Here is the input.
Amino acid sequence: MNIKNCRSCGKIFNYVSGPFTCPACREQMEQKFQEVKAYIRDNRGVSIQEVAEACDVDVAQIRQWLREDRLEVTEDSPIRLTCEGCGAFIRSGRYCEKCKNGAASGFQELINENKQAQRRVVEDQKDKSGPKMRYL
Ligand SMILES: [Zn+2]
Ligand SMILES: [Zn+2]
Here is the structure.
């Protein structure tokens, strides 16, 4: 048995996995999550502060849900998250699409560009020396 104190209510509970909160608090949190999700869906354009007040949830908790990709704000929402990679505005998660997809392919492109640049240099040298060689 792994006994822990619930981080939220302080009650002792048998810890299995996940966050250090007792099943009752976790259940409550899940209900809050559904409430927040519905509120954001039904009230387009609300700020994170308004959601927090309306649903009685911490702003930090809402941000965490957004970061965890569980919540997504609407296109026109003033709730803004920024990409941890490039700082672009995103609607959920931690990275924008560009950084998510580009992390691997962008690097590959960079390598390809370098290769092409090198090839160009080699060809330029050939062009310069080529005709001259013929005249000599
Ligand atoms: Zn609890
Ligand atoms: Zn990004």
